[in-house]
Amino acid sequence: MCWNPNAQDRNMGETGKEEYKMQSFDADTQQLLKTALKDPGGVDLEKVANVIVDQSLKNSVFSKESGRMCYTIIQAETKQSGQNVFRRGLLNRLQQEYKDREELRARSVQEWVCYVSFICNIFDYLRVNNMPMLALVNPVYDCLFRLAQPDSLQKEEEVDCLVLQLHRVGDQLENMNAQRMDDLFSLLRDGFLLQGGLSSLAQLLLLEIIEFRAAGWKMTDAAHKYYYSEVTE
Questions:
Q1: 66 and 118 in contact (C-beta within 8 Å)?
Q2: Cys bridge to 118: 63, 92, 123, 201, which one at CB 3.0-4.6 A?
Q3: Tell me: the pLDDT tens digits for 8-50?
C-alpha cells in the first residue's frame, strides 16, 4: 500500500504564526525547522520530515503537537512552489515505521506510543477533499487494535495512549469505517470485563472511553463529574 501524498489539509487559519515546542532540538535543527516553516524551498524537506519523525518517536510532548508543525510546512510548500516534497517524505517515513511497528514496540514501548500519537496527529490534520485521508484509516486502526491486545492492556502507558487517541480521532475513524470501530470496542469491553491483572487506572480509562463512545463521542456532565471530580478536588 502506498500512502498518497497528494492530500489537501484542513484550514487552520493563522497556524503559521503560532509557537512550536523546539527547545528539545539543538540550535542548528531549530534553525532548520524555523526555515522550513517560513521558506520551505530553502531547506532539504526530506531531512526535515525525518527530523520531525525522529523527534516525535523520542518526545511524547512533541509527538502530540508535531502534526500542527507538519501542516504548516505542507501549507507553506504548497503556497511557495506547489510541490509536496515534505508531505511525500513524511508519509513515506510514517509508512516505514508502520511496517516495522512490532519491532518498534519490542524495542521501546515509549517510542511505540509516541508513534501512535504521531500518526493519529497526522491523521487528524491531513485532509483529502475535507475528509480524513483514506490511506491512513486502516494503519491508524491497526495501531489502535494493537494497543487493545491483552499484553498492551497490561501496560498503563499503552492504555493511556489508546484512550487519548480515541478521544481525539475516534469519531472520525468511526465515520470512515464503523465496523472496525465496533470490533475495536468489542475487544475493549472484553478486556474490561474478562481480562485479569488490569490496573485500577487501566480499568477506569477503559470504562471511561466505552461510555464516551456510547454517548456519541461526547463527555456527559455526569461522566465528567464521576471521572474527574476527584482529580480536581
A1: yes
A2: 63
A3: 555 444 343 446 667 778 899 999 999 999 999 999 999 999 9
What are the Cα distances from residue 185, in Å, to 20, 60, 96, 179, 226?
34, 25, 27, 10, 21
Nearest Cα to Cα of residue 66 among 117, 6, 11, 12: 117
- Residue recorded with cell 504548497: 78
**CA atoms of 102 and 44, how far apart (whole Å):** 30
SS (H, E, C) 211-222: HHHHCCCCCCHH
Strand partners, 126: 9
Q: Which helix (H) or strand (E) holds 63?
A: helix 60-81
Taking Cα atoms as reference points, which of 71, 69, 40, 42 lies closest to residue 56? 69
